[in-house]
Design goal:
Blueprint lengths: L5 E10 L2 E11 L4 E5 L6 H9 L6 E6 L2 E2 L5 H6 L2 E3 L12 H13 L6 H4 L3 H13 L15 H13 L5 E5 L7 H14 L4 E5 L3 H7 L2 E6 L2 E6 L1 H6 L1 H6 L11
Parallel strand pairs: 3-8, 3-9, 6-7, 7-8
Antiparallel strand pairs: 1-2, 1-4, 4-5, 9-10
Helix pairs in contact: 3-5, 3-6, 5-6
Amino acid sequence: MTEPILEIDGLEKRFGGVVATNHVTLALPPLQLHAIIGPNGAGKTTLIGQLAGEIEPEAGRIRFLGEDITALPVHARSLRGLARSFQITSLFLDFTALDNVTLAVQAHAGHSFRFWSKARDEALLRDPARAALERVGLGHRADVLVSRLSHGEHRQLEIAMALATNPRMLLLDEPMAGMGPEESARMVTILRALKREVTILLVEHDMEAVFALADRITVLVYGQVIASGAPQEIRANEEVRQAYLGEQEAVSDV
């Protein structure tokens, strides 16, 4: 049996009287896309933050590639192969797409930003940046200023920046937020190809995309896992339908 790449055991976090994660326990096998779904306020982004090292859990353990990383900071998790994207992109709009990804490569390698002018000509940084752009379908847009890219291309670029760190696992927080149907379809195609190369934990409200992509789905409600299983199991789960899926019109079309 394949060992899990990520093991989450009893994670808990409260913000005042709000329970954000309530004894969340999961095991994720490698090279699968595992989706986390649930209504607003379910604790999905808090869970991603705990896994990335941005939010300290009050209880529980996180193991990645067999190592306990619960107490490790963000950069240490990144160096071990855990990368994340955010709900809201944070890009250098006056730089090109290639410049942005090169900066991600440079930061991951530990180089100083003071030498950025030299980094622009450094093949060891530019080559993996170009390769990451190709993986998300932006190779032909490498030299375009980010300010001139579409919203969907911004989301693709953010994933390229995560890929540039050579991760073993991607934590993606609503990569399709704000996208139209065409852009969402493009992102589904990109993620379908990527999940054959890297394990993905996906938080997403687009149920059509979730059911098209996920190997397994976990449902969070009020910070607690109410169901976890294959897409067909989640679709047929009456508790899930009452708590969440029944309110999602897109599910009837997938």
